[in-house]
Amino acid sequence: MAEENQTDAAAQGGQGSDGPEFSMQKVFIKDLSFEAPGAPEIFLKEWKGETGIQLNTQARPVGEQEGVYEVELGLTVTTESNGETGYLVEIKQAGVFIVRGFSEEQRNQLLGAYCPNALFPFARETVADLVLKGGFPQLLLQPVNFDALYAKHLKEQQEGSGQGQGGNGAAVTASENP
Fold this sequence. Notes:
This protein is of the alpha+beta class. The chain has a single domain, classed as Bacterial Protein-export protein SecB. The protein has three helices and four strands; from the N terminus they run H-E-E-E-E-H-H. It has a four-stranded antiparallel sheet with strand order 1-4-3-2. Helix 2 crosses helix 3. The termini are far apart.
């Protein structure tokens, strides 16, 4: 009987213990948009794509249970060719996470960096698929160092007026030209 209880607790991810608990419960697309404002004329011109990326993360508690959070990764990808917008992709990739038993600092790090890092591959795959289906050359988004972006956000928050999201996430932006 004791073995069954231990097995049940292990199957539930240690929910019966008082230790920290972290798990991803659900991953979903909250919002999605693809625009190709210059099509079809842009397909007749030489392609010289320059891509800009903006990232934004948010976290908020959801439901009645303590320690349940929605983390949202906003990603905007704009690619121009010869000064003309080829396409614009906007996605809000979200997930529901259980984060319990951690210090406030650890929880904020998980919600502001670790969770967006876990969501990014899902968003990256969706963006790549949309770009190809839109008739454009393949786009492979490079990995993002969410830990560094979160640390930068914290530093800016400490140096600035201290306004922000109350430590529940990181609002960050980044640009890159692959």
